[in-house]
Amino acid sequence: MEFFKGFSWAVPKVFADAIADCKFEEGDIIYDSQSAYKEWGRALESIRYCIKVKFPRRTLRVTKGKSETVALANWKSEVKIELKKFFDEIPIQPIKTTQGRLFSLLWKGDLEVLNEDNPDPSPPLFLKDVKKKLEETVSECEKIANKKPYFIMAYDPTNEVSLQKHLRIFPALSKDFGCELFQLAPEDSGFKSWEKIFPVICTNLYIIDKGGYDDILKTLKKILYNPLKGTTRDSFRLSTHGILKSAQF
Q1: Would you call 156 exposed, middle or buried from its count of C-beta atoms within 10 A (0-12, 13-18, 19+)?
Q2: Which of 12, 92, 138, 198 is most buried by its number of CB atoms within 10 A?
Q3: CATH topology of domain 127-245
Q4: Residue 141: enclosing H or E segment and its boundaries?
């Protein structure tokens, strides 16, 4: 079983839709330790808490529009959970809270966020916002690229559009130019406010072995540009997707 990085609790990748939409549903069970999903006997040595979602009722997920729009709409919606503390005589606690508070608990690990006397947590910076800050990662990426050409983009594996871009870009760059991929967590990317970034987002750094700027750009354009039928105007802007840097000598 694989887990998302960036969370204090152990959040398996099977919860990708719940994370993308910021909406956990009835029957979802989350532990604070990865071992809880593996060998239960050994897991009891490391589990401290478990959350079971009781409401909202499970529905067929149909995400319309962008995931971040849905997530923001769900952030303050109601969720009812049961919080169990292992090896403690305190009974299971039923708690009525918000999806945003639950998400923040899994992300930051502070149980006090469930206390409604505390301020509502702010939503994280989603992909649209992180793209605008991508220039902040250039300095760090240049160190890793070591004078080779490279392409960087903000990547969210729970966002279908972002995922499909990556699944097409990496094989194409590898085939045409030779490419090595580094996936940098927000705290390793050079972002100034990395702690506010949606925890599954990373910076995809594609370091290219050979090829000139124009040829690399042409390959990226084939992947990323879908002109409207009937239009003759070229409105492709690479900056809406990422940043391409040529080799430095």
Answers
A1: buried
A2: 198
A3: Alpha-Beta Plaits (3.30.70)
A4: helix 138-145
If we measure between CA atoms, which residue out of 161, 204, 200 comes closest to residue 184? 204
What's the order of all strands across the beta sheet hosting 243-245? 179-184, 202-208, 150-155, 243-245
Note the pTM of the prediction, 2 decimals: 0.91
Angle at 118 between CA 114 and CA 124, to 5 degrees: 75
| CA 42 to chain CA centroid, nearest Å | 29
List where CATH 3.30.70 sits in the chain. 127-245
Strands (E), the chain: 29-31, 49-55, 78-85, 93-98, 150-155, 179-184, 202-208, 243-245
Taking each helix axis as running N to C, give the angle between helix 213-224 and helix 160-177, from 0 to 180 degrees, rounded to the nearest 10: 140
Give Cα separations from 19 to 14, 25, 153 (angstroms): 10, 11, 20
Asked if residues 31 and 10 have their Cβ atoms less than 8 Å apart, the reply is yes
Local structure of residue 143 (DSSP, 8 states): H
Residues in the chain where the model's pLDDT stays below 70: 40-44, 61-66, 230, 248-249
Tens digit of pLDDT for each residue in 205-224? 999 999 999 999 999 999 99
How far, in Å, CA of 23 to CA of 44, rounded?
A: 28
